[in-house]
What we know:
CATH class: Mainly Beta
Helix content: under 10%
Shape: globular
Number of domains: 1
CATH topology: Beta-galactosidase, Chain A, domain 5
CATH architecture: Distorted Sandwich
Strand content: 35-45%
Low-confidence stretches: none
Amino acid sequence: MDSVTLDNGRGMVVRVLAYGGILQSVEVPDRDGRLANVVLGFADPDSYVRDNSPYFGALIGRYANRIAGGRFSLDGRDYRLPVNNPPNSLHGGTEGFDKRLWAATEVAGEGGAGLELAYTSPDGEMGYPGTLEVRARYLLGPGNELRIEYRATTDAPTHVNLTNHSYVNLAGEAAGTIEDHLLQLHAGHYTPTDATNIPTGETAPVAGTPFDFTSPHPIGERIDTDDQQLEFGLGYDHNYVLDPPPAGQPLRPAARVTDPASGRALEVLTTEPGIQVYSGNQLDGTLVGTGGAAYGRRAGLALETQHFPDTPNQPGFPSTVLRPGQVYRSVTVYRFSAAG
Length: 340
């Protein structure tokens, strides 16, 4: 299985697999300059196929997150998708982009190393209409930031919603839970769900709820609160409605996570309107990661920049329709630092 190593020469090293476009490891320094891999994954690339990986580090498509009932209508036609998260379709179906072999080409980034991944999704793949030509670029810059650029075109109307599904633990991927990490989100609203994790269509204020991260809070501080939404998600597994970007800025601040012990911090910026916050609630200790440690519950935090879940069935959400002649573009930046 092909892999590529990107090194910015300033202490950050990223390893990417052509299979699934997977970020296998992301090494960044702590406040004392000590490197650690801060994303969950497997040492053996074949484990991503063999061990039923929960999307560790993968590119997700054709549609990230859930679609209710595995069905939608577009331009008067009905489409059926694989139901792999009953009763819904999740992350593109049983064989989404995370399980495809991408063509990899090394490219030059601005002041750093880069990799372009290409995949052609044929008409009808996983039930989605249209042949979709997809490109994803990983660009590693000198400021310890990883930029992901997505581009897609189609020959027939379809829905597109792409993301990366890395799980982060800033203490190191083998360091236990992320419950002590401090999380701040630039989002005053979120989209509540039903018991199957499908949005109700409402956008609700976070103020006065356990979902309020408008100022930094430990992830574990309120995660087990007696709250119906937290019961539905077994913790945090919800889409947040991001605040508008600053005037004249293409990227909007989405999230900041810090680990007080190591000093490492991660800022997430994106062009997307939402971010799914998933606190690794269903990791159960059966998967052994890169560092040889079993990943227990809440061993990592996924911050998936995206359009909202179930948008094909939610006319009040920002559209994910892509038509011939249009170009889907999306950018997300993961900026790492360490406090002294």
